[in-house]
Amino acid sequence: MSKPSIKLLPILLLLFVGSGMCALIYEVVWFQLLELVIGSSAISLGVLLSTFMGGMCLGSLYLPRFIDRKHHPLKVYAFLELGIGVMGLLVLYLVPLVGSLYTLTPGHGFVGIAMRAVVAAICLLPPTIMMGATLPAVARWIAATPKGVSWLGFFYGGNTAGAVIGAVLAGFYLLRKYDMSTATMLAAAINLAIFFVARAIAANAPVLADTGDTEALEIEAPQNTPSSRLVYFVIGMSGLCALGAEVVWTRLLSLMLGASTYTFSLILAVFLAGLGIGSAAGAALARSLDRPQFALGIAQALQMLGILWAAFMIAVALPNWPVNPSLSPGPWFTFHVDVTKCIWVVLPSACLWGASFPLALAALAKRTEDTGKLAGQVYAANTFGAIVGSLAFSLIVVPQFGTQHAEQLLLVLSGLSALLAFSTMLSTARVTATASVLVTAGALIALTPNVPAIPGLLVAYGRFMVTWLNRVDILYVGEGMNSSIAVSKLGDTGAIQFHVAGKVEASSLPQDMRLQRMLGHLPALVHPDPKSVLIVGFGAGVTSGSFVPYPGITRIVICELEPLIPQVVSTYFATENNRVKDDPRTEIFYDDARSFIITTKEKFDIITSDPIHPWVKGAASLYTEEYFEAVKEHLNPGGVVTQWVPLYESNMAAVKSEVATFLKVFPNGTVWANNVDGKGYDVVMLAGKDSLRININHLEERLRQADYQNVVASLVEVGLNSSIALFSTYATQASDLTSWVADAEINRDRNLRLQYLAGTGLNAYQGDAIFSSLALGRKFPANLFVADPAWLAALQGVLGSSQ
User: Fold this and answer.
1) How far is the CA of 261 from the CAs of 170, 226, 325, 627, 628, in angstroms?
2) How many helices (H) and strands (E) does the chain have?
3) How far apart are CA 196 and CA 212, in angstroms?
């Protein structure tokens, strides 16, 4: 061996940092890209995650079996990095092509789910298999010595540290300032640089590195002993608990931080940072431990305390911090508070899970002479457990049993994992092993019942929970597959509110009722004879229910991600939503609305949406130019579309982006105001597939008919007691907004700019200033109406005074 090869190990560690950075940039980009094609439901995300991690598992497991040891390990690693870069670029351009084939299939049901799996496999398996193979490839360059095995832990930790950089870089800068193409190009360039550096190292390095110690670990012991199988099972259980906890904690932390893309990137970054710190610590310990399996058991046992700590922080401590988010001076101050909360909750357990990997390597290193095979098998076991954990907890455990029982299950599994790790020592250190088993079992019994339940008020109001203490009654709390929901009753007014993921989604308050009815009645009255309607999102059902009184409508189609919402929440708003769920004309598809629209062959007279906040992760895809184009294509001739735009909890840049993107596809678009006390609150964008002309005489004739009296009553209930009252909500139209949207950023599939713009406006209350700016250039829309001069004069008088 060559002594200088010791000096090459830190360089290789840096390469692994770069490799991890690229992997997370790709992961963020690919998930965002594929969500646009197959949707963002829990099932779609489960398919994506299992495919991504499944490829990593396959790569780590099968590289040692298919790549002969005669090849220089660093050359193999170099070409893997080159392949990842090439595949990263191919996926960027392959997804739209595969997506065009996906649009030819049904977007829902078993066939739809199967096609999503096929699309994800085609796009993700080739590059992720190569990603998974990098660690076992480099591991073959490391001898089976104490220091050598610890270097494998450092490589894993370095790779994870790079992943932290990649997650932050992609989530907070590259995709916020640029787009998916730029992020992918940068990652591919780094892959290429790693390829050249690794090739250069390989040209001057021996086939086996000199790690600085000469005493090899025992390799004559049988490889497949019962104790070795238990260690693989323990590291698999560690991966299962880690990803299961990430699913649970991401859902719960997003309640108090806001479910924006920044929150998800932040949680991921902190989680990965903990894995990296723990891995480095575990690798350092592994050099000198006589019984690494004992340390592995300690890490799993301490994990019980880590899980209980996180549960207590999320359910009891952090929600009751006396902090009012609306007093934040800006988004960066809020970001600092959010980072603190994430570190406080996630970091302890993440460090323990990170330490488990190198400790498992050390515990098994005596039983193999092929370090590539060792690293591959340990990594595969850990990744396979992670796949099971992410799918089981997101699709089964949380929806069926709730987050409290999910955390209890995580605690129990960690305790059982510790018991298994300690049991591997019974033949060599019986007293220590027995004592450890007894203490762990006692702790397991004592700690499990003390996991606290999540407060209903947190599910309802999230980060504003402390400002609502003793002001509302929580009527219902449910944790579904896709989101956590709540229903509350305001103590002072008796109004019912519906909450999703810590925010108010709909309510029976006057301003919200008026908005929801406007989203339905405006297009239904503007269209001369609507027959079919598609509503994106169920909400409280008020928007959908607005179409029930119309005698001519024969089909009401609703797309909703979370089944609990129509099944449970609708019953609390049965009067307000006209029991739309049970109407024989109604059909509900429990799926991603974007996926439904791009795959359905059906066309509609009206397409509208229940209020969906654009800062929520995944919602920006329902505000893109491409989405609006798909909506336009699925409108019948003469069809009408409405789209909600919130002015509260937003900012000027986000609203301009939403309006400009809509008007780019619908250049005849109009804007209608839902003001509160004369101040800007939110608006409705209305447009026709063709030119929009509103025949007032025809409209009023319909409203005088006997079978339209329920429609009239529905309008009167929200203060719209005449056609003048309804159309006096007019704010502006496209021709008046040319200069206002000139500097707006168009929200496209390739950049999803809106989710980054809107994500900084969570605590902003600039609605009135935004509306004043929006309506500043308004002129009377004489071109919009076909009406008698007296009616036009009356409307002009009202609009003039309101302006």
Assistant:
1) 11, 45, 18, 19, 21
2) 28, 14
3) 26
Task: Name the pTM for this structure.
Answer: 0.88
The rounded distance, in Å, linking the Cα atoms of 318 and 466 is: 10
Tokens of 535: 């509503």
> Encoding tokens for residue 476?
């219902």
**CB 608, CB 533: distance < 8 Å:** yes
If we measure between CA atoms, which residue out of 647, 779, 667, 802 comes closest to residue 724?
802
Give the Cα separation of 769 and 779 in Å (integer): 19
Q: CA quadruple 660, 663, 667, 673: dihedral positive or negative?
A: negative
Per-residue confidence (pLDDT) for residue 64, from 0 to 100: 75
Q: What is the DSSP letter of 746?
A: P
Cβ atoms of 210 and 5 within 8 Å: the answer is: yes
Structure tokens belonging to residue 352: 């323990």
Cα→Cα distances 457→264, 344, 453, 575, Å = 22, 21, 12, 25
Q: Which of 36, 1, 18 is nearest to 119 (CA)?
A: 36
Alpha-carbon gap, residue 305 to 323, rounded angstroms: 27
Distance CA 372, CA 80 (A): 15
Contact 277, 521 (CB under 8 A): no
Q: Could you give the domains of the chain?
A: 1-212 (1.20.1250.20), 222-454 (1.20.1250), 456-500 (no CATH), 508-802 (3.40.50.150)
CA dihedral 494, 500, 503, 506 (to 10 degrees): -50
Where residue 239 falls (left for φ over 0; alpha for ψ -120 to 50; beta otherwise) is alpha
Among residues 661, 633, 630, which one has the least CA distance to residue 645? 661
Which residues does the chain have with pLDDT short of 70?
1-6, 101-113, 143-146, 148, 207-226, 366-370, 801-803
Q: What confidence score (pLDDT) does residue 207 get? A: 67
Q: Classify residue 745 as exposed, middle or buried by CB count within 10 Å of its CB (0-12, 13-18, 19+).
A: middle
Contact (Cβ atoms closer than 8 angstroms) between residue 714 and residue 700? no
Q: Express each pLDDT in 515-532 by its tens digit.
A: 999 999 999 999 999 999
HSE value, Cβ hemisphere, 13 Å, CA-based, for 596: 22
Side-chain-facing half-sphere of 41: CA atoms under 13 Å: 28
**Helical residues (DSSP H) of 425-495, grouped into ranges:** 430-447, 456-461
**Amino acid at position 174, single letter:** L
Give the integer Cα–Cα distance in Å for 671 and 683.
7
Distance, in Å, from the CA atom of 560 to the CA atom of 41, rounded to the nearest integer, reads: 10
Distance CA 438, CA 444 (A): 10
In this structure, are residues 123 and 98 in contact, taking their beta carbons and an 8 Å threshold? Answer: yes
Which of helix, strand or coil describes residue 614? coil
For residues 593 and 536, the answer to whether their CB atoms sit within 8 Å is yes
Phi, psi of 151, rounded to the nearest 5 degrees: -65, -35
Q: How far apart, in whole angstroms, are the C-alpha atoms of residue 167 and residue 169?
A: 6
CA distances from 286 to 147, 224, 292, 607, 739 (A): 8, 21, 7, 61, 65
- Angle CA 533–538–542, to nearest 5: 80
Run of H or E residues at 149: helix 146-169
Tokens 């609990």 locate to 564
Instruction: Note the maximum CA span of the chain.
Output: 100
Cβ-Cβ contacts under 8 Å for 751 (sequence gap 6 or more): 175, 178, 179, 180
Distances (CA, A) of 131 to 22, 95, 657, 670, 707: 10, 19, 37, 49, 64
Strands across the sheet containing 604-609: 586-589, 555-559, 532-536, 604-609, 635-646, 679-688, 670-676, 730-733
